[in-house]
Write a structure and sequence with these properties.
This protein has 250 residues and is of the alpha/beta class. It folds into 2 domains: 54 residues, no CATH class; 148 residues. It is built from 5 helices and 14 strands. Strands 2-5-10-13 form a 4-stranded parallel sheet, with helices on one face. Helix 1 packs antiparallel against helix 2 and helix 2 packs antiparallel against helix 3. It starts with a helix and ends with a helix.
Length: 250
């Protein structure tokens, strides 16, 4: 379905642009840009809507494998994974990771102020997540879902204020991290006795951003330059393909 939608989102604007006098190749490039923008916004919103329509708000409890609730959970997981986070995954300059935070709020998570979540962090069953203020979560897994003796369990997770979860760490279902708990890289919520405040300096979302003037006048131009260089082979390769097809017959 996603691939079919992508083709339609390319084909329809392509035809419309050409009908308004835009050249075939330029119309194709514009259509691909429009398709990417629309998909980046619409796909995650469709995933969020399907989650609320199919399963509503997740409820903590113990459920049989292959039962109705399990199949609804599985279906929602597939749809959300296929839809992706789209624009909500982007860690934009100055805005930072606020779009990621907003995505999980839309999914039903209770998230405090000044919470920073890595764009690749894997947070499951957002309704069962309670995250306090000033929390930093790196590329880690925070998932209330677990399996036990022919059943799956959904157990709430509470992360207190000023906590930090290091890269590739796991916060298991039913965990409660007291305020100020800092899990190091490659750790888990089962190792809270090893947690130490010094580990927070290794949590990448906690890094301080450069001053705004450096981001605007140095960082963004460098990112735009790198991106522009990266699309040059794609652009000219596509132009060559379209030009050759037009010259030699479609």
């Amino acid at each position: 379905m996603r691939r079919i939608v992508i083709w339609f989102l390319v084909a329809i604007p392509w035809v419309l642009f050409m009908q308004h006098g835009v050249g075939r190749f330029r119309a194709l490039v514009l259509a691909m840009v429009v398709s990417r923008l629309l998909l980046g916004v619409l796909a995650p919103l469709v995933g969020i809507a399907c989650k609320w329509l199919i399963i509503g708000r997740y409820k903590a409890g113990k459920y049989p494998l292959w039962g109705t609730y399990y199949l609804r959970w599985w279906l929602v997981e597939q749809i959300v994974n296929i839809a992706g986070k789209g624009v909500f995954r982007d860690d934009l300059p100055i805005i930072g990771s606020q779009l990621v935070r907003f995505y999980y709020v839309l999914m039903g998570a209770s998230i405090g102020n000044n919470v920073k979540i890595h764009k690749d962090a894997r947070l499951g069953q957002a309704d069962l997540l309670t995250i306090g203020d000033d929390v930093c979560i790196d590329n880690a897994q925070v998932r209330p879902f677990t399996v036990e003796e022919g059943h799956f369990l959904l157990m709430p997770i509470t992360i207190g204020s000023r906590c930090a979860v290091g890269v590739k760490s796991v916060v298991a279902g039913g965990s409660k991290l007291p305020s100020g708990t800092c899990l190091g890289p490659l750790s888990s919520s089962h190792e809270q006795e090893d947690a130490d405040e010094s580990y927070k300096k290794y949590c990448r979302p906690a890094y301080e951003q450069p001053p705004a003037y450096l981001i605007i006048f140095v960082g963004i131009p460098i990112l735009l330059l790198v991106y522009s260089i990266s699309v040059v082979p794609w652009y000219f390769g596509l132009e060559l393909m379209v030009g050759n097809a037009k010259a030699n017959g479609w």
